[in-house]
Amino acid sequence: MKPLIVIFCALALLFGTFAPPRVHAASQLPPELEEVRLQTIARLSSIFELDSMAAHAPISIDFVPAGDLGDHGWGGLPRFAAGAAIASRSAIVIVPNRTGRYPFGDVAQTLKHELSHVLIYRALGYHPPRWFDEGLAMHMAREWGSEDEWFLAFGLPTIARGESPLSRIENDFHEGESDVRRSYALARAFVRELFENDYELQKFVSAARSRNSVEEAFLTRFGVSSDEAFRAWATARPWWRDIAVAVSSERVTWFLALGVFLVAGTLGWWRRKRSYDRLPE
User: Fold this and answer.
1) For residue 120, is pLDDT > 60?
2) pLDDT reported for residue 163
3) Mean pLDDT of the chain
4) The pLDDT of residue 183
5) Are 203 and 185 in contact (CB under 8 A)?
6) What pLDDT is stored for residue 114 in this prediction?
7) Alpha-carbon distance 234 to 156, whole Å?
């Protein structure tokens, strides 16, 4: 009997070692994230005009610590990425300890972002251009804020000078962290500018699906190529406006006030020290 027990334990250990990574099914998500998932799917399914079967087809959602990504098949994820999606496989990974830094928001916003990638792929039947895919995902996931203004302000001047066509923005998504952040801000601002409301976006997605091309839909809708529209938008938008908005934000104002307080305190200490040094011993 003992040899059988040993063999059984060895087999259990062996198969446990090579077992597939644990994936959170929808029913296993924490209640607050399950609510986010359902609300996001409902909204995006309406905008993308997905039928019930496509909208509610299973999506695997895996929450993995940064140090375990390789073991779960996500080893190629950039070191700063808080989430990723393989839309064709309906697979999402979220790295909770990386969330919160731009362009990723908190865990809920990251979940919305990655769900957008999966659902737009289902709606179109193909992968859209990266600028549209990421810009749309960011636009759907979170409100526009001061960080967006800040990264946008530093990206606009090079585009206005003709140094960064839309294809360059596409390539920058594969570069370093600063390039990626700038590209996210530019893509999101461009998508936000193109579609004033969900109805306008819905019509565009419908056209992109029927024409089997985002670029063809863009030409039909706007009369110019996406790259021409991108250059015109960047040239017409005053980059200094975004810096002014970013600098006037509550967070920046607080840091400036703190900086003034520290400088004033340092100067006061230095003056008192000089006064004490001049006193007779």
Assistant:
1) yes
2) 52
3) 79
4) 87
5) no
6) 97
7) 6
What is the per-residue pLDDT across 164-210, written as a single tens digit (0 to 9) for each? 578 777 878 887 888 888 888 889 999 999 998 999 999 999 999 99
Q: d(Cα 128, Cα 134) in Å, to the nearest integer?
A: 9
Is residue 155 a contact partner of residue 164, using CB atoms and an 8 Å limit?
yes
DSSP of the chain: -HHHHHHHHHHHHHHHHTPPPP-B-GGGS-HHHHHHHHHHHHHHHHHHT--HHHHTS--EEEE--GGGTGGGT-TTS-TT-SEEEEGGGTEEEE-GGGTTSTT--SHHHHHHHHHHHHHHHHHHSSPPPHHHHHHHHHHHHS---HHHHHHHHHHHHHHHTTS--HHHHHHHTTS-HHHHHHHHHHHHHHHHHH-SSHHHHHHHHHHHHHHT-HHHHHHHHHSS-HHHHHHHHHHHS-HHHHHHHHHTSHHHHHHHHHHHHHHHHHHHHHHHHHHHHHS--
Residue type, 108: A
Is the pLDDT at 99 greater than 70, yes or no? yes
Task: Say which range, 5-14, 167-176, 225-234, 259-268, has the weakest mean pLDDT.
Answer: 5-14
pLDDT value of position 35:
96
How far apart are the C-alpha atoms of 42 and 185, rounded to whole Å? 26
What is the distance between the alpha carbons of residues 69 and 88, in angstroms, rounded to a whole number? 20
CA-wise closest residue to 97 among 73, 64, 71: 64
